[in-house]
Amino acid sequence: MSKLETTRRTFIQGAGILAGLTALPGVTWSATKDVLKIRVEKDIAVLDPAYETGMLEEAVIRSIFVSLIELEDIRSGSNWKLAAAESMDQIDAKTIRFKLREGLNWTGEYGPVTAEDVKYSFERVADPELKSPWAYQFEKLDHVEVIDERTGIIHLKEPFAPLWLMSLPWYGGHIVCKAAVEKAGGKFNVETPATCGPFVVEKWQPKEKLILVANPDWTGPKPDFNKIEFIIVEDNESALLAYEAGAFDFSKISISAVPRIQKNPPADTTLLMAQSSRYVWISLNLDHPKLKDERVRQALQHAFDGDSVLAGAYNNLVERSAGVVQPGTKSSRAENKINKVDYDKARSLLDEAGASDLMVKLSVLNTTTDMAIAQIVQATMTQAGITVEIEPYDEGVYWTLGDQASGDGWKEQEMILMAFNGGLDPAENLTWFRPEQIGVWNWSRYNSPEFESLYQQGLVETDVEKRATIYHKMEMMMEESGGFIFITHEPLVAVHRSNIAPVILADNQLVPAATKLFT
Amino acid sequence: MSLNSTSHARSPLRNNLLVNIKAHLASIWNTVLQISRDPIGALGLFLVTTIIFIAFFADFLMPYDPNQINVLNRLADPTWEHWLGTDNLGRDSFSRVLIGTRVAMQVAIVSIGLAMVGGIVLGLISGYGPKWLDSLLVLIFDSMSSLPMIMFAMAVITVLGPGTYTLIIVIVSVSIPGYARMIRAQTLSLKNSEFILAERSLNASSGRIIFNHLLPNVVGSLVILASMDMPVVIMLEAGLSFLGLGIKPPDASWGTILNDGYSFIRDSPVLIIAGGGPLILATLGFTFLGESLRDALDPKLKKRGSK
């Protein structure tokens, strides 16, 4: 047997041949039938639908569990369609009858997916004692009645308008296996006790990758890919370089890269730009002594130059938001009450309030976009005589800033640049500003019983026009409180191989099982 | 009359002082000449002098306000108007590099200066003081030295928040033990030398011994160490600023410019050069100067080198 020896000369020759091959005009990258490689920014921590925090966790959960209904691509209007349910019948405003598809089975020895599992899953999320962050998605759930193995009836305490967009197809709506979860102690982290979706987890290498493979027992529509690889790359620029080198088939990219990609797109690549539900705003701490005076808060709103922020941080790819509700929907406001920068007005308000030399702290997450926004705000507000001091924080510290459970640090916060991944139903995005969320996610500490009352009215109102009026009023109240400066809804910007058709949901996550491959 | 007598009494002192100053200036001049004769030393001296000049006169040299945002002219290529182009917020990169030089020098000089003072005081106390105090201080120095610098910096910044003062606190805290240990070692070796014993036998006070005899003899090597530490401190400041833990926006630092350059490397590669270039030059300059200074001031080393 001849011995394979690598000398410097043979190595260089080999490298030269490889380099030559990649330089050939015909050599391009495309997704293969077997594997879909998706770049993601963050790793998973929990795969229990009741306690997940979104992002990759939700993308994986959507692939390994099922929900009664699911949403279509955000670009096609996000209509819902049947998924685990073969039928959904609304008997009246408070009663919905469902029947599960036949052939849905749990992995292991847990048998078929049953109506009992649906009951367990929904009531578990709604149970206040379990403190699921998604409990609000089922807050009007009374109970689920099991009729037979595959049939059940959802009974609501009151009509619940967001049920079809915010509850059943969304985070809290995934069905878990009652027997398996109870056996696991009532909750689980990353070790899923039993799954039933089109994919199963094959391998998880923390902070590197997570691999899903097709579930051999899946009887639903067969996905176009047999294997999904989620590869974790935090940095957008590195991810784009890796994409160009053929490492992924889909990758989100930074907004700043868009002009470059438009001008000189990588081979076989489609640039995806979609309206996302991620809303960005500045939270003003209403309980901070410096911001107690309404005129000071209004001055800050008047001194905010939205146009410069949109141009400098978002390349003018997005428009100014007038609230947190998804733009382009009936429930979203057309524009802010204070819509244009007015330094003179800001200055006169500050003079009236006796705060002409106002100095405020703006806490931000230490990312390129957030820092750019903060610096533009800092530079522009100077023109109204306001000194903005930027406090950049790493993620670990940042997400505790307004959290009352993390100590008294919230008392020191003045303004915080924030962004949440939202949903399609207005209630999904407005729920975080209710009084019960003060010190949890309501970092403005906006405390309005009227807002809560309107929120409750919005939940039970099924007339679209009346509902929209309620949400317009709620967003107007938020703005008038002076606790919020609405900035924008960020766009989803990504590149993908031209031979795939990704399906994207409102939370910017790709749905691997629905993504199509063109051969 | 009394005034006359006083002025008469001061004259020899004044003369003495003048002689001393002249001697010191001559010694410094000789050292500078010696460094200039060494090509590496001359290059180091040139770079450091230039950097210090820029740091002092940045206000006059900057063509634009370094924090002036112009979002319509983002990531512009270098032109005659903007020699190093503009950053992601349309700020003039050249002006930011110049003001970043001042920030780097301010942090480095203030931090090292404070660390030297702290190191001298603690080192002298440790070396000349009672044994128990020496043991306690050595334990503290060792504990401080065992902390990983970056981790320590990040912990302090998390508690105090980022900013120039926090950076200085971090650098001073991590630098003092090294300086103090060196001063302590030199004090221990000198305190039983003949000239100190002679002073003691003449009932000289501890203060006189420390300030008149020990301090002048130990401070020279500390200057060499400090000059060698300058690039380390500059790199630390730039590194922490790169990570967003150092200089607060909108102020420019070479680290923040480098970070902007990294984020937009595909759009404007010149930003990386704008942030990285001065960092490399400053590091080389202070390293070359420090090594040359060591050769010039350490006679033992010179002898060893000539062999």
TrEMBL record, chain A:
<dbReference type="InterPro" id="IPR023765">
    <property type="entry name" value="SBP_5_CS"/>
</dbReference>
<dbReference type="InterPro" id="IPR039424">
    <property type="entry name" value="SBP_5"/>
</dbReference>
<dbReference type="Pfam" id="PF00496">
    <property type="entry name" value="SBP_bac_5"/>
</dbReference>
<comment type="similarity">
    <text>Belongs to the bacterial solute-binding protein 5 family.</text>
</comment>
<dbReference type="InterPro" id="IPR030678">
    <property type="entry name" value="Peptide/Ni-bd"/>
</dbReference>
<feature type="domain" description="Solute-binding protein family 5">
    <location>
        <begin position="83"/>
        <end position="427"/>
    </location>
</feature>
<keyword id="KW-0732">Signal</keyword>
<dbReference type="InterPro" id="IPR006311">
    <property type="entry name" value="TAT_signal"/>
</dbReference>
<protein>
    <submittedName>
        <fullName>ABC transporter substrate-binding protein</fullName>
    </submittedName>
</protein>
<dbReference type="InterPro" id="IPR000914">
    <property type="entry name" value="SBP_5_dom"/>
</dbReference>
<keyword id="KW-0813">Transport</keyword>
